[in-house]
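Schema walk-through. Below, the input block comes first and the output block second. Nothing else is stored per chain. Lengths vary across the set, and this one has 595 residues.
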Amino acid sequence: MFLALRAEVEDALERALSELDFPTDDLGIEEPPEDVDSVLASSVAFRLAGEAGAAPPQVAGQLADELDAAELTYVSEVQTQGPYLNFLPSDAYLAETLETATEESYGALEDRDTSVVVEHTSANPTGPVHVGRARNPIIGDAVANLLDYAGYDVDRHYYVNDAGRQMAVFTWAYETFDEADLESEPERDRIEYDLVRYYRKGNAFLENGPEDKVEDAEAEIESIMQGLEAGDDETYERVSEVVDQVLSGMTACLERLPAEFDEFVKETRFMRNGDTDDLVNRLQELDESVYEEDAWQLELDEHGIDKNLVFLRSDGTSLYATRDLAHHEWKFDNYDRAVTVLGEDHKLQARQLNTTLELLDNDTEQLQQVLYSYVNLPEGKMSTRRGTGVDLDDLLDEAIDRARGEVEDRLDDRIRDDDLDEDDIERIAHQVGIGAVRYDIVSKQPTKAITFEWDQALDFEAQSAPYVQYVHARCCGILEEAGLDPETDLAEQDVELEALEADLLETEAERDLLETIARFPAVVDEAADDLEPHQIATYTREFADRFNAFYRECPVLSDDVDPDVREARLALVAASKHTVANALSILGVEAPRSM
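--- output ---
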């Protein structure tokens, strides 16, 4: 309803400004501070003061006189507060919010008929996913969820680097060494942990092995790279045997988050179909193209980039950047928009990519990049047997273990009488533990470096995932006690929504909660426009505060509650349940039915 109210206010304000012969290009629409009763406000009087030859409060008064709230559906009154115009919500606004928000899909926006490909993670298939890179799949999955909820047709892609030197080294090592040559046991019983030992062994051999044998190895590695470049099927199959196995293990790790993909797009695809060769020919024809230091490069200093883009080696092999350019042109041909989630260390490459695509006459308005800083862990908080870093699996295991302890410690303090067995505790530990990791990471602005702290992430009382998840569990408990199914729309449970009297929700806590629920679709809309899922996390914290205030102050099922008020409050609880469940779903955080 907030989006409808905002559209109504914008339309009415434009008409009022036109009637007074004022310009309508900037309406000054904004959300008021929390201590103001209105849902929307306008500061347009500030801008018009000079033109009107009057002080801003006087201009605001003129506009208020011109605006007739009786002609509006969702606004009950227009008030002035100094230079501001405040728009107060009507009973119809609250009633329609209450009815609409009891639907399971509440907050989802209408289909925009626009396709978007979101590429994220795309870690090289050389071994387990490292925790430092965990921000990419978490942010990427949340961005994709957000766009999907905002009405876009979204495909989730993982771009597989299966053609670079790393994969040639890995393939050579996998074919060269035996299990007996490896120095350690796999750290986990999963394929990428097994095979990464070959990759490490191969790199160690290339660095420290006998000179003549290293030369032979390098020749074989070069042969693999040349075979891929030439589109040789046998070479492709050799490399794919390694890539596909490692990728299957990495995928199993990412599914724990969960982060899943619609398609794994291999860069060799653009070598084998001729796109890379075609791209190289076009790049060589550009004025910026030069042959220097045994490689073809683009000089981009006139475009504000002081590092050349190398796109072809002297031996005729292309580079990752070359193939990625072909990849992006393929995206442009198949999607209306392309979003890529990248670590901050790729900022230069992103600029080079954008500029080169423009030089190739592509419209880069459809391309957006979400850049993020890396996740750090506090020293001494986690250990790894390898001693070279912490894998994402390690972090998720630790999260589940810690969450299990928190859940078990709270068993005696639970109000609900639904006895939890071991399976329930394990399920909740997974929901809370992994939810805590995702929420803590996605709730921060991506460009800010973060240090993951367990005490904050798993604090049931602070503004963390468990704090928000507990609101959902509490809503489910109330609805179940009332004989309703929390997962089903009220309209499908013989609840007469038209008969609900939203104006009975008259306490400050009730109205604050209902107005917060009304804003959810608008928060989705704005966050999707900005590609900022952390806005959803910020909203969930505010929402949880509002719901908890309502829970403390407004009994729902007590015997002394008027039956009509009881029904209205139950509907408000159902609306709250759907709102928080859908917000958490966008963030990729599960909403437990019981905690």
